[in-house]
Structure formats: structure tokens, C-alpha cells
Design a protein that fits this description.
By secondary structure, the chain is an all-alpha fold. Helix content is 81%, strand content 0%.
């Protein structure tokens, strides 16, 4: 039976996902928000992206741990 992903591995994966997502979010904020009449500076776009990235990091980590736990309980990999 293969070992599941460690908590550290889960955190590193979630961090990598969120860092990349943050960059995409900043660019999206700069492009999309002005189209809705909400002009933003690059600093504001980065701040908005950081807030949502922190939320995403927590969500990704918690979901990964839940899936790891259920996988072990059900004997699946």
C-alpha cells in the first residue's frame, strides 16, 4: 500500500498552487475590475489577490487533508 501525502507535502502543494494563482489573480484584477468600472492600482490588485490567495490556501489545505483522511479510512489510494 502506498503512503498518502504528508501534511508538509499537502501544504507545499497548496502553497505552489496559491502562489501561481496569486499571479493570475493580480493580472485578472488589473484587467477585469476596470471593465466593471472599478479601476485599481497594481498595489490594490496585489492586495486583493493576496486576500483571496490566503483564503484559497486554507481551502486547498483543508480539502486535501479531508480527502487524505477519507482515502485512508476507505482503504483507497
Amino acid at each position: 500500500m502506498a503512503a498518502g501525502q504528508s501534511r508538509r507535502g499537502s501544504l507545499l502543494e497548496a502553497l505552489a498552487n496559491v502562489v501561481l494563482g496569486w499571479g493570475v489573480a493580480v493580472l485578472a484584477n488589473l484587467a477585469v475590475l476596470p471593465a466593471f468600472g472599478l479601476p485599481v492600482t497594481p498595489g490594490q490588485a496585489a492586495g486583493i489577490g493576496a486576500a483571496f490567495s490566503a483564503i484559497s490556501l486554507c481551502r486547498s489545505y483543508v480539502l486535501r487533508r479531508i480527502f487524505e483522511r477519507f482515502g485512508k479510512q476507505n482503504g483507497t489510494d
